[in-house]
Sequence to fold (150 residues):
Amino acid sequence: MNRRADRRRSLEDLERDSRPAPASAPAADASRLVVTAHALRRKPIGELTVEDLRLLIRQNVGLPQLLPLALEVLRHNPLAEGDLYEGDLLSAVLTRDPAVWRERPELGRELAGIVAGLADLPPGPAQEVGRADFLRRPAGPGVADQISVA
Fold:
């Protein structure tokens, strides 16, 4: 998705993919995570919190719409924190499948720039930066230098 998503719309609307609500009874198979992610898919994307973004991105839900929003948050606050730890949104973004960054190299370049501007990282994000091979390789046209992560 190359154009900006309408923030008044939900992932269900944007993806044109409405799913039945998972059973939420204690005896049902649906976990709290599944029930929460399903509810967040119905929330307008402009109303999603850092924690909402972190949770959905970790579950690979709505990445074409949510990664640009997450990067917008990270541009202003690279160590934005959901409910887990300082920098948990950055960790969630960094751990996506490398194919995501090949499909959207402009987002990969933006993320690489955000990470390059960080001096000290908390342990969680620091570990993920060390594992994110795509940060050390050019992500597409216009990326001349590799980012050193040491």
Summary: The two ends are 33 Å apart (CA to CA). Residues 63-76 form the longest helix (14 residues).
